[in-house]
Amino acid sequence: MKNLKQKGFHLRNPHLGRYDFKSLIxxxxxxxxxxxxxxxxxxxxxxxxxxxxxxxxxxxLKTYYGIENWNIPMGFLCPPIPGRADYIHxxxxxxxxxxxxxxxxxxxxxxxxxxxxxxxxxxxxxxIASDIDPISVENAKEIIKKNHLEDSIVIKLQPDKNNFFxxxxxxxxxxxxxxxxxxxxxLKDALSANKQKRDNLNKTRSSNLxxxxxxxxxxxxxxxxGGEMLFLKKMAKESLLFSDKVGYFTSLISKGENVKPMEKIxxxxxxADTKIIEMVHGNKISRIIAWTFNNNKK
Length: 298
Description:
Oligomer: single chain
CATH class: Alpha Beta
Shape: globular
Mean pLDDT: 86
Radius of gyration: 19 Å
Structural class: alpha/beta
Strand order of the largest sheet: 1-9-10-8-7-4-5-6
């Protein structure tokens, strides 16, 4: 087992440093109306304003990844792109440098389909992207179609919410799997975390927390019965059944207290190698857990 720690973004992440709003505005006239001055005089947006965050994402996707058409249904998760890109770049380091024609499974891709877009545009990876929510699946398919990525990204509906790989991985070999699990065990927990996030953002406008989550998010995206730990435990157990079809399984872990229990579970299941990649972005710490059952990965 290896523990790796990196402060700041991965060196290959194009979103190092502050947002270049001057460049972003060139690719998004709509974003310009949401720009305002921060207390120190720099350009910024109100990150508590979901419309502003949506336009920021559109500008980032167009500027850095050539995505012309991207939208999500109202109320769905609008992810922070720099952090999502960091996950992609870190797991790319798990692959043999000589390996070509990489295939990746994104579990719970959501309506936004961010990971497949970044992975494909950054490294040319081909993706299977799955989700249990039909609305998310249809929206992701629409994004892929409008941006002519059908040959690189396949969207699949997971018919059984208790499965991760069953019904999705067929006979093909998958080099990497990735997942951003629902962090919370209930709506109450999600709302509490959302309030703390809003407080951290120093929002000045009032919001009805019972109706709206900061950055959006549906049930399957934010919470599930048993929370993150049970979700990861079930994923680990099912991964053993696909040990010969997957190179590295990976997932984000939001809560630090879940790392050691997961390491113990994977050791008991017979994982040949486990890695914990800790990413420190300012005051935020996030983690990737990666495991394989193969001593000689394809």
